[in-house]
Amino acid sequence: MVLNFTRRQFNLGLAMAASSVPVGSCPALAQTGRVVVGVWGGDYQTISQGNIVDNLIAPTGLQTVFDTANDTVRRTKLLAERRLPRGSMDVVALTAAGSYQMYKNDTLEELDASKLPNLAHVLPSLAKSYAIPQFFSGRVILYNPAFVKTVPTSYNDLWNEEYSGKVGVIDVQYQATLESAALISGGSVSNFEPAKQKLLELKKMGVRIYPTNESMAQALSSGECVICIMWQSRGLSWKKGGVPIEIAYPKEGIGLFISDLAIPKNAPNKDAAYVYLNAALDPVAQRAFAAIQGNAPSIDNAVLSAELAANVALPDDPGLKMLLPDQDYISKNDAQLLDWWNKVFKA
Amino acid sequence: MNTKSRKSFFLLTPATAVVLIFLCVPLAMLFRFSFNQFVPGEFMVSAFTLENYSRLIFDTYYGSALLTTVGMAVGVTVICLIMAFPIAMAITKTPARYKSLFILLVFLPLFVSSAVRAAGWIVALGQNGLVNYALLSMGVIETPLTIMYTGVAVFLGTLSINLPFAVLTLQSVLEGIDHGAEDAASNLGAKPFEVWRLVTLPLAMPGVLAAGVLCFILTMNAYATPVLLGGPQFRMMAPIVASEVLEQSNWPAGAAVSFALMAATLLLTGIINGYLARRYSYGS
């Protein structure tokens, strides 16, 4: 699915984020009780703790408890608990595809905009009724310039025989990898089937499969892997951390990763969940995710420094398309795609 | 019911209730789930189908994972026993004042969780890890070996986790052996290896079996070590259960794989136990 908005519109949002007059965060009313937030671990949890919880939630009197796991685990939990009157999470962090799937399975609350003052600042192209977009990033190619002498311009450059045995993919990024392969093999964001044959060719070339994003960062550092598909935000933070990589933009288009926060229908403390969601859209929290993780803010009043805004922006190339996953296709095909990935590609 | 029986009944009731409520009931539920149908995107649909079990038989993915798991369990158990026996014998023969120190040394690794120990192995076995650094420095290899995310890494990690259990089990049995029989064999002209083979080993066989069964079951059901050290391409059964349930939300398949793993573990343990009991006739 090619979006009906352009890279310019996206960057316009960032420009607004960089230039807006700071708007004070809406003070939340005094709250009691606790809010259980299902989140990813690592940087994500650390940034959430320091910038959402400590800065914005704790002063309201609410206690925050993080339930750390992968997105897939949280989806399973939501499905398993959907018939219970009280679920175990008040807020759930999901990928955009995950939140769509959970919404279609009737597990997520339709959001009440009147309880989310910061929702007014969300970039219109990212808005949805069942979740707030927390941040987004574009899918790019990371390469080690010491080994990859020609700047990659297409996902197809990963299939270059010259890099045999030095190309890496990430297990948990199977959807992004399949989608990228689909775009260069006659498929599309709504049809990943041609990607299977294309990925088997990569497998024959000795592709390395890393379990997590972090293990990919280590492999890029050691030179074990010299080219991979990754999110721009990760590329920026790894580069900042000394990993010898550069970022290249594939001509097939930039797939967007959007991280959502939603409220389960059976959340025990929905009022507290709204306070958390509103805080996540606060400029303070948004700036932290941009500065530390390189993610682009989902609001127009984040007020980023010019340098940071330029870094997290998508490339200024009018020919480049922005691509969103076809969530309906993924929702219906995710199980068989993961099955193929596990049983055939990884076998 | 006489007083003794009544007392036994009351003493057994709490433990039995806990097992029934927290083990048997969930197992029964899981068994029922294994006959349900998985509809992508919709979790599981109540049904009565054998497709989850038939997939286990006809899909080579599960068969090869089961073979890998059994192979790993047998390999780790054998090497564990070979390594643990001399250590256990040495501890048994250590003077009493040092014995507790040695036992504590065997216990020490158990103070650290298996995930943390796996993290240590990641540091040691990586491309730039300790092992490759040592081998490169000594000139044994010219390019770093790929050890992480292979069966070798899983084998080493699992072996290190199971070894203390095997040593402690064997040591407790060896302590109970009457050393007079060994002395008698020596006096009658048996060489040390013959004494060990013909006297010590048969007498220690219940301990060997207990240690072996423990290692075998722990490896068959290992999760953290295969996931952390084996990486995405190394497959054992317990990580497959977790993947089916947590990644694919496919509870029926996860439940069926669980029962296949449980059945394989029970069956193989029973066969080995029965064979060794007959071979050394200690069961009768």
Poorly predicted regions of chain A are: 1-5, 20-28
E-strand count of chain A: 11
Strands of chain B, count: 2
State which percent range the strand residues of chain A make up. Answer: 15-25%
Biggest chain contact? A-B, 32 and 24 residues
CATH class of chain B, please? Mainly Alpha
CATH homologous superfamily designation of chain B: MetI-like
Secondary structure tally, helices of chain A: 12
Calculate Rg of chain B over CA atoms: 23 Å
Q: Helix/strand/pairing class of chain A, anyone?
A: alpha/beta
Describe this protein's structure.
The complex is a heterodimer of chains A (347) and B (284). Helices cover 40% and strands 16% of the residues of chain A. Chain A has twelve helices and eleven strands. Chain A has 347 residues and is α/β, with parallel strands linked by helices. By secondary structure, chain B is an all-alpha fold. Chain B is built from twelve helices and two strands. In chain B, strands 1-2 form a two-stranded antiparallel ribbon. In chain B, strand 1 and strand 2 (44-45) form a beta hairpin. The A-B interface holds A 70, 72-73, 75-76, 79-80, 82, 101, 104-105, 171, 209-211, 215, 218-219, 222, 224, 331-336, 338-339, 342-343, 346-347 and B 38, 40-43, 59, 61, 64, 126-128, 149, 227, 231-233, 243, 245-251.
Looking at this protein, list some descriptive labels.
heterodimer, A: 347 residues, alpha/beta, 11-stranded mixed beta sheet, 11 strands, 16% strand, globular, disordered N terminus, B: 284 residues, mainly alpha, MetI-like fold, two-stranded antiparallel sheet, 12 helices, 76% helix
